[in-house]
Amino acid sequence: MKEMLDCELAGESVIMHANRALYLQEHATLLVADTHFGKGAFFRRQGIAVPSGQSAADLQRLSRLVEQFEPQRLIVLGDVFHHRPTADEPFFKHFAAWQARHPDLTLEAVVGNHDRHVRGLTLPIDWHPHLDIGPFRLCHEPEAVQGRHVIAGHIHPAYALAAAGDRLRAPVFWMRSGVTVLPSFGALTGGWNVPEAKGSRLVMVLDGQLLPLPEL
């Protein structure tokens, strides 16, 4: 198993990373999906005791990816925030400090279903309904588009391995004809089990490493 995996999508070289990211080499663009920043704070406001500091830790993971790949653009494939942040939310401080660390990085996002909660907020993010880059259509929901290879998020794909009575379930990159779905980047997100669809290829994220699985 490796931290990174060289792949080809739609005739272009890309790199999968075990930090649940995809790097488009020919476009100097780093992709992640479903960061759901602020989810822990939202649950705590609802009286649910979840650990604090998760969004700050996720931003540190993003910084490591940016420092490793040195992309010109970072694009989040929807659901940047989990809810509408409050004005005094600690995450805003972390987010401002994070952006100050990467002044030359262009931060963009396609609009996800959770991002409706941040309408009207002034944020240093360029928002798009979708983005076309080379042969790729970048969007939130993984629906096929004629003439494009779709790269999306939204469903938080996961897969379970079973052997000798034991079961192991983990996030996956899910590739099928014309569509690639990234695992959710946010640490406080759940997962949806991908179907046993013929021709699908899965790469599992396990303990900071990538495990390619046999084609379904």
Question: Can you describe this structure?
Answer:
The structure is a single chain. The chain is α/β, with parallel strands linked by helices. The protein has one domain: Purple Acid Phosphatase, chain A, domain 2 (4-Layer Sandwich). The chain is built from three helices and 16 strands. Strands 8, 9, 10, 11, 12, 13, 14, 15 and 16 form a nine-stranded mixed sheet that branches. Strands 1-2-3-4-5-6-7 form a seven-stranded mixed sheet, covered by helices on one side. Strand 15 (201-206) and strand 16 form a beta hairpin. Helix 2 packs parallel to helix 3 (90-101). The protein is globular and about 45 Å long.
Which key features would you list for this structure?
16 strands; single chain; alpha/beta; seven-stranded mixed β-sheet; nine-stranded mixed β-sheet; 216 residues; Purple Acid Phosphatase, chain A, domain 2
The CATH class is identified as Alpha Beta
- Cα-based radius of gyration, to the nearest Å: 17 Å
In the residues, how many domains can be counted? 1
Uncertain stretches: 46-50
Protein name: Putative phosphoesterase
Domain Calcineurin-like phosphoesterase: 30-116
GO molecular function: hydrolase activity
InterPro entries: Calcineurin-like_PHP (IPR004843), Metallo-depent_PP-like (IPR029052), PdeM-like (IPR026336), Pesterase_MJ0037-like (IPR024173)
Short account of what is shown:
The protein is α/β, with parallel strands linked by helices and 216 residues long. The protein has three helices and 16 strands.
